[in-house]
Design a protein that fits this description.
The chain is an alpha+beta fold. Helices cover 28% and strands 26% of the residues. It has a 5-stranded antiparallel sheet. A 4-stranded mixed sheet has the order 1-2-5-3, with no helix packed on it. Strand 11 and strand 12 form a beta hairpin. Helix 7 packs parallel to helix 8. The N and C termini lie far apart (49 Å).
Length: 302
Amino acid sequence: MQIIENYQIKNDTTFRIGGTVSKVALPETCDELIELLKSKEYELIFGNCSNTLFSSEKINKNIILTKNLNEFSFNGTTLKVSCGTKGPIIAKECQARGLTGLEFLIGFPGSFGGMIHMNSSAHNQSISDTFVSARIFDLETNEIKTYYKKDMNFEYRNSILNNENLILIDAIFELKEGIQEEINSTIEHNLEFRKQHQPSLKYGNGGSTFKNPKNDSAGRLLDECGMKGQTQGGAKVFEGHANFVLNFYNATSLDIITLIYRMQIAVKEKFEIKLMPEIKYIGDKGTKEYRLWEMITKENTH
């Protein structure tokens, strides 16, 4: 296991933005992760940092990165997977075994810890559909507990893991045997959909910027406000889908946050709807961008 001080986080994020983190630990087994959590030295834990914007400035925090925790195994139709394993890897493994239920992960850059945390979904499939149970570390009691599907409080882009005192270690899924041609077709459709509707990997981005409001689409609302193609410094709203913000040209975290704020205000003024961000921001309190993010994430009071 590596433990690195003054770690440059930029290249570990899908935004390709980020400053120096005080200390980063990179566990390679679930047991190492559990020991790190017990130590209480680390404030935050991340996988592929796919829905996360790190400050471009120095970040005075100790962080665990689970990108080396990529163990998984199959027993018939049952899958056991560690929190750091990336979605596309498992989608391809399921495809090779003729198993259906997780085809939508072929287009998700995130890892299982984050995807279960936010109950990722697309193309009429979601993490919660095939989820059976998980080992979860309780930071308050220093205990590992088993949580079953009924315990997870799965909702749209939400789960019990939004309680910051709970950390997922690994999880079990029950898949189904499918028809190989149908699985292949679904995988191809999902990849083509991503190609047509989401930014290429040429530009860094954090995935969908805002959650969809009830019975509506954040992308539609932003499009109606003319946000496609809008820029702020090196940040740009994707011209193909207005709910994506790109690191178009050496954007800073402040560029991204300022553009997100402008997007939110535009929708609020036109539709009286406050869009809430799907991405997370990590930075130190007291900075201009931190104060701006607090305004973005503040829930409506009326």
